[in-house]
Specification:
Number of helices of chain B: 3
Strand content of chain A: under 5%
Number of strands of chain B: 0
Distance between the termini of chain B: 55 Å
Structural class of chain A: mainly alpha
Largest sheet of chain A: 2 strands, antiparallel
Strand content of chain B: under 5%
Shape of chain B: elongated
Helix content of chain B: over 70%
Order of helices and strands of chain A: HHEEHHHHHEEHHHHHHHHHHHHHHHHHH
Helix content of chain A: over 70%
Largest interface: A-B, 10 and 12 residues
Number of strands of chain A: 4
Radius of gyration of chain A: 30 Å
Radius of gyration of chain B: 17 Å
Oligomer: heterodimer
Chain lengths: 638, 105
């Protein structure tokens, strides 16, 4: 089982590309870095596809897929037992993630050549894209939780760099800072969780942690804190890290603001790859969470369900096209978390797990497509706002068709990929928790409604006054759109239930018409309502908004969560905690140190006259001192 | 030749020489004179070495050799000091020790 050594190159190529374009990019023509980065990414993509093909379809997997570690080295050895390793772990979810990341990343690289054309910092952009891809790949193939944590932070840094790509723009700087601080705050929970987990189990390795029926949790049962067992604490804390990256409520506030970054970045990082890192983390730790900390799994399910509803409601009222998509992403991530929350382990019980990974895959395709399509629209009309758009279907035919496909996919229209994955999630939810099922059912309708509100407003309705006639994007931008549209349509036919399952053994699923038909109907209902309200421009939506009054305003302002956070941080934490601490630091700690300095200075002024420069004074002092010493020794010792 | 002279006499002479040297070093202003005072201090020490050697360990020679070393080092030291004094004289046109105080605070 060592035929996978070439997987090392999948992650090394982006690293090399980052170093090369980052260090040399300034000296070349900008386009060279773009092409170089794209070729490198294409190579990684090809290697990932080869890996996936030979892993999933080469050989027999009747008794389940093996976990393969083609490469591992000791990175830091503290003691005989405390060793941090770096390596590559191939199992169904990591191979699937390799494919997702390299596919989307390659498409985004290609697209960016067109989208970022002529921007200052073109080479820097591609260097950061490569850095991000490298860290994300390192995250998913991590063999142990510590390696994952290292790459987890690298991903956070590269996200920070890319959100703040337009660093002259104050809003972009603020957004990147916000994203970094919020996720970093969550990562603190992750780190503490890792420490508790490794303290209890004595290992970092995923292999040992997730082995079924393992004995390493033997001592965990007796440990508890505040009436909750140590493992539950560890899993909740690790989930907080995942929730920060995946922007789960209440740590969701950074994701909408992160849309300040260039649109391809939003597609790559904030729709398809980085934000699913939290879902991936939960999936990676799934056996531990499921068997050792069922309470944590409950929490994950409810947080996911609430986030999906909450974000879908906000998405209805937003006017910034990218923010609608951002809230839609939040909502879909909520779906995935919820599916993990309601999943069992093994066989058909593990339907939620499989559905979550399935939805992760299809969502990556259609959400990246939506973002790239939005980028194409923004490229054409130079505005982010829906009220600056209308009637664009004539000007942007390819974008229009691909965007429509993506909207249909996310709305769950039958036989497109979103339909299959969403349906599996709903079935899993129905089996385990009726309340969560009801929430998801409503969200399915809301999703269809807000996506088609966006679609009809942008592509139908009246023409706006454009500065120049909008024109279709160049081929280098539409090619990724077309590829992703095809992927969105057909990704649903991948037999995920044979490939990616909780216990790595395939099982058989059947279409559950009791769930599928109502969910399609509510999706169609959402589309129909959007059709009536937004196909032709009318004042009905405005009247409805006025009718809801307060509720509408609250939703439009995202339920004031940003304001609440600002209030808590600025007014309460800054005033009552930070300022006293700062005062203590400035006056007590600094005062003490400054005092020492002042006393020394004052004393030295007093005695500096003794250094007169007169040799004979010194000699006299010396002799007098020696005599005094000698006399005192005689007096005291004799 | 020194039979019959007790050790204390030598020590008294060397102590007097030592303190004359110390007083000269502290009191005199002329650098050359201070140099001579240092020579007095060194030579008082030499006397001590030789006398202790002769009275306490008559069959050994370490003390005498030490005094020879001191004579040699005193010569070297005198040559360095004289060179410094000449430079000071060139700079200041005199060799008063009070004028050499440029390295104070």
């Amino acid at each position: 089982m060592t035929g996978y050594t070439y997987t090392v190159f999948i992650i090394l190529i982006p690293l090399v590309m980052f170093l090369v374009t980052g260090l040399m990019g300034m000296k070349w023509k900008p386009i060279v870095s773009g092409i170089l980065g794209t070729i490198g990414m294409g190579t990684s993509w090809a290697l990932s596809l080869i890996t996936a093909a030979s892993y999933f379809f080469g050989g027999h997997h009747a008794e389940g897929f093996q976990t393969i570690i083609p490469f591992e080295m000791k990175w830091l050895q503290f003691t005989d037992t405390l060793i941090i390793k770096m390596g590559i772990l191939l199992d169904p979810i990591s191979v699937m993630m390799l494919v997702v990341i390299t596919t989307i990343s390659f498409m985004v690289h290609l697209y960016s050549i067109g989208y970022m054309h002529g921007e200052t910092g073109f080479a820097r952009f591609f260097a950061f894209l490569s850095l991000f891809t490298f860290s994300m790949l390192g995250l998913v193939i991590a063999t142990n939780i510590f390696q994952m944590y290292i790459f987890w932070e690298l991903v956070g840094v590269s996200s920070f760099l890319l959100i703040g790509f337009y660093y002259q723009k104050p809003s972009a700087v603020a957004a990147s800072k916000k994203a970094f601080i919020v996720t970093r705050f969550a990562d603190l929970g992750f780190l503490i969780g890792i420490l508790i987990l490794s303290f209890v189990t004595g290992t970092f390795d995923f292999g040992k942690l997730t082995e079924p029926g393992t004995a390493i949790f033997g001592s965990a049962a007796s440990m508890s804190f505040m009436g909750i067992s140590a493992m539950t604490w560890a899993m909740i804390l690790i989930f907080i890290g995942g929730a920060g990256k995946s922007a789960m409520f209440p740590l969701h506030i950074w994701l909408p603001d992160a849309m300040e970054g260039p649109t391809p970045v939003s597609a790559l990082i904030h729709a398809a790859t980085m934000v699913v890192a939290g879902v991936f983390l939960v999936a990676r730790m799934f056996p531990v969470i499921h068997f050792q900390a069922p309470a944590a799994q409950e929490i994950i399910g409810y947080v996911g369900g609430f986030t999906s509803l909450f974000a879908a409601v906000i998405a209805i009222t937003q006017y910034d096209i990218k923010r609608v998509l951002a809230f839609s992403t939040l909502s879909q991530l909520g779906y995935m978390m919820l599916a993990l929350g309601v999943s069992g382990y093994g066989g058909e019980e593990g339907l939620g797990y499989m559905a979550s990974m399935f939805h992760l895959f299809t969502h990556a395709m259609f959400k990246a497509l939506l973002f790239l399509g939005a980028g194409s629209i923004i490229h054409a009309v130079h505005s982010n706002y829906m009220y600056d758009m209308g009637g664009l279907r004539k000007y942007l035919p390819i974008t229009h068709i691909t965007f429509l496909i993506a909207c249909l996919t996310i709305a769950g229209v039958p036989f497109l990929s979103g339909f299959f994955s969403k349906d599996e999630i709903l079935v899993a939810a129905l089996h385990h928790n009726k309340l969560l099922f009801a929430i998801e059912f409503i969200v399915a309708g809301l999703t269809a409604f807000y996506m088609f509100r966006l679609y009809f407003t942008v592509f139908w309705g009246k023409d706006r006054h454009y500065h120049h006639t909008p024109h279709e994007s160049p081929l280098v931008m539409t090619l990724p759109l077309m590829f992703l549209a095809v992927a969105s349509v057909f990704a649903g036919y991948i037999p995920f239930h044979h490939l990616v399952t909780s216990d790595k053994v395939g099982f058989v699923t059947e279409m559950n018409y009791m769930v599928a038909i109502p969910s399609v109907l509510i999706g169609l209902l959402g589309i129909a309502v959007a059709w009536i309200l937004y196909k032709k421009e009318s004042d009905v939506p405005a009247k409805l908004a006025a009718k809801f009054g307060m509720l509408y305003t609250a939703t439009y302002n995202k339920f004031y969560f940003d304001e609440i956070y600002l209030f808590v941080t600025r007014k309460i934490i800054f005033n009552y905690i930070s300022r006293p601490i700062a005062w203590f630091d400035r006056h007590i700690i600094d005062g003490f140190m400054v005092g020492i300095g002042l006393v020394t200075e004052k004393v030295s002024y007093q005695i500096k006259g003794m250094q007169s420069g007169q040799l004979q004074h010194y000699a006299f002092m010396f002799v007098a001192g020696t005599l005094a010493l000698a006399l005192s020794m005689i007096y005291f010792l004799m | 030749m020194i039979q019959g002279i007790p050790l204390e006499h030598f020590l008294i002479v060397s102590t007097i020489m030592f303190f004359i040297g110390v007083c000269g070093f502290i009191i005199r202003r002329n650098l050359i004179t201070m140099l001579m005072a240092i020579e007095l201090i060194l030579n008082s020490v030499n006397i001590n070495f030789v006398v202790f050697n002769r009275y306490l360990y008559p069959d050994q020679l370490q003390g005498q050799f030490f005094s020879l070393f001191i004579v040699g080092i005193a010569a070297a030291e005198a040559s360095v000091a004289i060179a410094l004094i000449i430079n000071i004289y060139r700079k200041m046109q005199n060799i008063e020790v009070e004028n050499v105080n440029e390295l104070k605070f």
